[in-house]
Write a structure and sequence with these properties.
The protein is of the alpha+beta class and 395 residues long. The chain is built from twelve helices and 17 strands. It is globular and about 60 Å long.
Length: 395
């Protein structure tokens, strides 16, 4: 018995020593390549297009989407740059996968994509690991299909919850999922939360004074921008841009076949109307200016139906979920009805923009869908409405 106890003690000490020798997670992971194609374009072609893609952290026009371009133009004054800010407040990586073509790739060749959705996947969408992977992988696969000689930097910004995880030596679900995707595609990673946690631990920064909020103050944005530009500065240029060969998907159900579907192609039954987004169409809650140029399919009451046949593994909808947002019930291929609550914690005073997943994990074939506005509603909601800007199908 004494021998066994001694052996167990020695083994535990050995495991502890082995763990202590494991390298600490890196704030920046360059992958094996960095961004050499982007550097080659700067140095050889002297012309480059940089797109920033994410939620409201990206949409902010004074943050990293200004600071990184300012740095690039100072470092390469002879280069003709084009910059695209494709940030859209509140949107997660699922929405990103479905709007990527419209908002990014339709703008022409993109030589560098800086993508951030970890915060919104965490706090707004509250995605599980699989969904966070499917969204970001869908974006990155679409990017390389459209820009096979381009480069990507995957950035994980930080909120208080993500910071607390980093300070505890852990990773938020969305951060870990996005890093897994980035490693699979060998693209650089910038973990702002981990970097900030280490600066706070060393006494060099504080959350309150030097970062401030989920939407950083200027010091916080500069901190993140310096990490992003370090990836570019530390990359050794390639001779000429090399074509990226896509590996097999990390998740075969990722949203790489993401398609926006016009609601008008659905069959309607009941009181649906298709009109421009306005206070007349959505009388409760404020409406962000981002959506007033769009039309939406609107139901004001329970019992309205939609029908559609589609080919793909996922069916979703991008909705404006206001104080009166209801619940959709969905049946695929004549199966059981499942409930999807449109109301969000931010719906109280706002027609909150969000992607909702109506069905996922389907076989890659044709499916029939039936959708109806339920009699039931969220206890916090004031109605049974549905406002759909477009449907989402992953082919």
């Amino acid at each position: 018995m004494r021998f066994i106890l001694s052996f167990v003690f020695a083994l535990s000490v050995f495991i502890g020593i082995a763990r202590s020798r494991e390298p600490a997670p890196a704030v920046i992971e360059m992958g094996t390549r960095g961004v050499p194609n982007f550097i080659a374009r700067l140095e050889k072609e002297q012309k480059a297009h940089v797109a920033f893609f994410g939620g409201s952290i990206t949409q902010n026009k004074t943050g990293h989407t200004k600071m990184v371009p300012d740095w690039l133009e100072a470092q390469w004054p002879q280069v003709e740059f084009t910059f695209t800010n494709a940030g859209l407040s509140s949107t997660c990586s699922t929405t990103g996968a479905f709007r990527a073509d419209r908002d990014v790739f339709s703008k022409g060749q993109v030589d560098l994509l800086v993508v951030e959705f970890a915060v919104n996947d965490d706090q707004d969408a509250k995605h599980d690991r699989a969904t966070a992977i499917r969204g970001l992988e869908g974006i990155i696969r679409q990017y390389f299909e459209a820009n096979p000689t381009g480069d990507v930097i995957s950035v994980q910004f930080v909120n208080p919850g993500i910071l607390a995880k980093a300070q505890a030596g852990e990773e938020a679900v969305s951060v870990a999922a996005h890093k897994a995707v980035a490693r699979h595609y060998d693209v650089p990673i910038v973990d702002v939360g981990l970097a900030l946690a280490r600066e706070i631990a060393s006494g060099k920064m504080t959350w309150e004074a030097d970062y401030k909020d989920t939407h950083p103050n200027p010091t916080g944005y500069q901190f993140a921008s310096d990490l992003i530009t370090k990836v570019i500065a530390d990359t050794i240029s390639g001779e000429t841009p090399q074509t990226f060969t896509l590996p097999e998907p990390l998740d075969p159900l990722s949203y790489s076949g993401a398609m926006m579907i016009d609601p008008q192609v659905f069959s309607w039954l009941g009181g649906w109307k298709y009109e421009t987004v306005s206070p007349e169409l959505l009388p409760m809650g404020s409406i962000r200016a981002d959506y007033t140029s769009f039309k939406a399919l609107r139901s004001d009451g329970a019992g309205d139906y939609l029908y559609h046949t589609f080919s793909g593994t996922m069916l979703g909808a991008f909705v404006l979920a206001g104080p009166d947002a209801g619940i959709l019930e969905v049946s695929i291929d004549g199966g059981d009805w499942t409930k999807v609550d449109l109301y969000h914690e931010h719906s109280k005073g706002l027609n909150y923009p969000r992607s909702v997943i109506l069905a996922d994990g389907l076989t890659k074939s044709y499916h029939t869908s039936a959708i109806r506005v339920a009699e039931e509603r969220n206890p916090q909601s004031k109605g049974n409405t549905a406002t759909i800007v477009y449907f989402e199908v992953n082919e």
